[in-house]
Amino acid sequence: RRTVPIFATTYNLHGRPYCxxxxxxxxxxPRDSIPDIVAIAFQEIVDLNVGQxxxxxxxxxxxxxxxxxxxxxxxxxxxxxxxxxxxxxxxQLVGVxxxxxxxxxxxxxxxxxxxxxxxxxxxxxAGNKGAVAVSFDLDDSSFCIINSHLASGxxxxxxxxxxxxxxxxNTRFMRNKGxxxxxxxxxxxxxxxxxxxxxxxxxxxxxxxxxxxxLRYDQxxxxxxxxxxxxxxxxxxxxxxxTYKYDTGTNNYDTSDKQRVPSWTDRILFRGQGLKLxxxxxxELTFSDHKPVSAVFEAQ
Length: 300
Hints:
This protein is an alpha+beta fold. The chain is globular, with a radius of gyration of 18 Å.
């Protein structure tokens, strides 16, 4: 019986290419244990314009891959770990991209690695929204990691639920293996669920630090409680302010004409006996109009 440390993170890039920004704080590995598995989920890795939806470029993804791998391996060398991180799977559906990384020493213990892309935009015809999922076996346990970008818009709760259900029921791997047929599941992404309160009230509660008052009106928690989404899934306690939407390059919530309501759109949920959440937090990068959200797990 082994303990498998896992680091997972999700970040909506707002279509911005990497231009040398300092990402060390965001991609810092846990101090007490070096993760065997690193999962990095991006949304809007390209601009979601018509041209990209029809034929998305992978140029941004390749730059992010090189940058992420370099940062992870620098940390391994600094800690004298004696192994190297390798990218075992990276896939992209328009703006949704998922990287799965492991040590070269762990790789021989892995098998049956496969990935699936599933469109949910325009009734399943367009990839501007959807999911990328990766399945693999590590020793005697099976893992599924999903990155999804669900329907946007404050009032589009039913559309988001439909997107979730569509991905949940139609994602099939080898031998018709479904998401919940795995021992452990991590579901990351820009799930786009909002806070159902008027903008001035939300901003006032954020300013006062009353996160519990806000979370009572969180659409994802409300829909899950009603059994419409994420049955049997867990999420860590949210101890950080809403992660969306910021003026790019600042820590100011949206000052544009649209004045979007601050919300926890970026989430990480999980299921599986023997999967322990050790940390759940956000980082303070101002690169995008979202903040990245990360989680540290231990799987038995």
